[in-house]
Write a structure and sequence with these properties.
Elements: H1 2-19, H2 32-59, E1 63-66, H3 72-93, H4 96-104, H5 107-125, H6 133-157, H7 161-174, E2 188-192, H8 198-225, H9 229-235
Amino acid sequence: MIGLLVIIIVSWVLVHFFEKKTIEILGIIPYPKRLLQFIIGMLFMMSLCLMWIAIETFVLNVEWQLNGEINYSLIFESFVYHIRSALTEDLVFRGAILYILTRRIGAKKAIFLSAIVFGIYHVFSYGMLNSKIISILYVVLITGFTGYVWAYSFYKTKSIMLALGFHLGYNFLMSMFYESAPFGELIYMEVSKTNLVDWDWLFYHLIKGLFPSILTLLFLKYLLKSNSKIVQTISS
């Protein structure tokens, strides 16, 4: 919590010093319109993840098992943890620095740079420095593309809220089914599945890694071009 507070203060100092603006420019204050962005992003991503889990269950013949009695207190702790974690990363990679860079070097370069750094960051956060180069490149590609879509969301909506919803929705939903530290397999756990090898493994995991971000980007573009009330709220 202290770390998040420090990041918020540093973000305020950066936008004040470089752009002579307040932290409000990051769209961090949860006004009703921005809360709607956050909820839309979270629900969309959670639905997307459930869709992929259903596909994976069918393709790999996954057998799931309830992981004991559902612990609602632990699920709530997981939600709080993931929202803090997602907000921290979004402020670092899609906050003040990204805003300043879009003003100084242009949106395209700034978003691309943010995506690359986000991908490299995950090599360190996953502890993969001693991994094979193919594994490292895979992580940079998948997480980097995800970072691109979320940075693009920030730029287009002028708020971190939609991307924060995407981020939280993915991390939180996946913790219900898959192993993850410090919270994982909160409801279900894999008992068995078909194991892929060689090119089948690579092809499958490329699709699995890119699937959420590609559909999220298409969804975002649809929202931005639509004339619905939801889009008017997000675009305003």
